[in-house]
Amino acid sequence: MAIMHVDANSAYLSWTAAFLLEKGSSIDLRDIPSAIGGTQATRHGIILARSIPAKRKGIQTGETVTEALQKCPGLVIYPPNYDLYLLCSNAMVEILGEYSDKIQRYSIDECYLEWQGNDEEVIEVAHEIRQRIKRQLGFTVNVGVSHNKLLAKMASELEKPNRVHTLFPWEVEEKMWPLPLRELFMVGHATEQKLKRLGIHTIGDLARCDSRWLKAWLKSYGTMIWKYANGQDESPVLLQQDMVQKGIGNSMTISYDVVSEEDARAYLLSLTERVGLRLRRMGVRGSLVSLWLKTDTFVSFRHQRQLQDHTDSTQEIYEILCQLFRECWQGQPLRQIGIGVGGFQRNFYRQVSFWDGKVREKEERLDCAMDQIRGRYGEGSVMRARFADGARKPLEGGVNEGNYIMMGGYGR
DNA sequence: TCTGGGGTCCTAGGACCC
DNA sequence: TCTGGGGTCCTAGGACCC
Q1: Which nucleotide is nearest to A336 (CA to C1')?
Q2: Which of A146, A243, A274, A334 would you call most buried, defined as having the most Cβ atoms within 10 angstroms of its Cβ?
Q3: Rounded (10°) angle between helices A354-377 and A314-328
Q4: From A22, A63, A67, A110, the catalytic residue
Q5: How confident is the model over A165-192, as pLDDT tens digits?
Q6: What is the fold of A177-238?
């Protein structure tokens, strides 16, 4: 049995490039220094994806648009288009579905596939997948091939674009151990810094060190990355029906600093409208309501409350968020506001007191009516009076309605 | 100089119970 | 009045992924 990891190369950028070519553009964004980035005016100015020529100029994903333009003044920047990305992602998954029933959609641009067969066969299939996606959909992918998910993923990262790489267990020492530590899955900036101070610089250094010592130092996380460095991973390819979503949230960076409670409450309400709608569409209720805030100085903090009951009511969630806000906000100018609901209950019944019940019943009918109207006539077709002046959107947050779950945990 | 949005998981510390 | 140990739940914060 083999595992493949399919990764769309510079996904957002490639998909935009393919789309523009189809629309008759004479320029392929992948051949010039280009990027997908947000607008600085609304404080969304970071690079989300970049072409290989832009990468050669030193432009990094995640850096600010300003920095990128300093490095490369002629950089062509397109805004993100998440609806397009979802279409491209779905088209890719549809092709992959012809090769295996066991597919895990890990993110919008990455999938794991299980393949029953020997190593020679799987390499052939990987090439076929690579060529078909390029021919039919107009963008390239990397395919990593191995015997577990971790190694397949590491393989697909090796050399880009449009390549198939193998990283079988017997190739780990030669192909993976010389790589910098940071390139190991699950080793981020913080862990890299910690381990560097201990003289661990490559994946091989980590693989060869004492796992008991690492566990004492980094707890279960130490054990996990030591196993990864040694190419060990037993996590299964998870099917969509086996994935259970634990929570949902929406957040927004606001184009100015929010300094009044009244203003903050308006954003809380529009975010709750989005989260409430999503909860009800998913058919779940949650018992853990979270608020998170980021100040103008980029200090972020979270305040949350575990409820007695489960709820999917916009009004109820909003009221709790207002309480949470009052409890933790000390007047700092706010750049970002986020909310979330977790602690899901799937097949629900509800305990209500008699008096509470009357009010909640009315709110439930209101939510239900709003959802139906929005479903039929569009999100903007009905809104709370609070938003009637048009100063703010009645629903905030959310990039698209991809109704599948991704990033199914780390797996262990 | 200006830093997005959507997730999952782990740990530490405190409250509370037996 | 002060002393345990173990367990669970809750909250905040931080790490990582794309």
Answers
A1: B4
A2: A146
A3: 110
A4: A110
A5: 999 999 999 999 999 999 999 999 999 9
A6: DNA polymerase; domain 1 (1.10.150)
How confident is the model over A182-210, as a mean pLDDT? 96
Pick the closest to residue A105 from A405, A411, A410, A412 (CA basis): A405
Give alpha helix (H) positions in A59-161: 65-71, 82-96, 119-137, 149-156
Q: What is the largest CA-CA distance in chain A?
A: 70
Phi, psi values for residue A113, rounded to 5°:
-125, 135
A248 touches strand B (CB under 7 A): yes
CA of A220 to C1' of C6 (A): 22
**CA–CA gap between residue A312 and residue A23 (Å, rounded):** 42
For the domain made up of A1-164, the CATH class stated in words is alpha beta
What's the half-sphere exposure (Cβ side, CA atoms, 13 Å) at A235?
Answer: 22
Q: Confirm whether any atom of chain B, the nucleic acid strand, is less than 7 Å from CB of A82.
A: no
> What are the two backbone dihedrals, phi and then psi, of residue A314, each rounded to the nearest 5 degrees?
-55, -45
Q: Which nucleotide is nearest to A251 (CA to C1')?
A: B5
- Which nucleotide has the shortest C1'-to-CA distance from A48? B4
Question: What is chain A's mean pLDDT, rounded?
Answer: 93
* CB A288 under 7 Å to nucleic chain B: no
- Under the banding of pLDDT at 50, 70 and 90, the label for residue A33 is very high
* Cα gap A95→A88, rounded to integer Å: 11
pLDDT confidence of residue A412: 40
- What is the number of other CB atoms lying within 10 angstroms of the CB of residue A11? 22
Chain B positions with an atom below 7 A of a protein C-beta are 1-12
Query: What does the alpha-carbon distance between residue A382 and residue A392 come to, in Å, rounded to a whole number?
Result: 14
Which CATH number is A247-387's, of 3.10.180.10, 3.40.50.2000, 3.30.1490.100, 2.60.40.10?
Answer: 3.30.1490.100
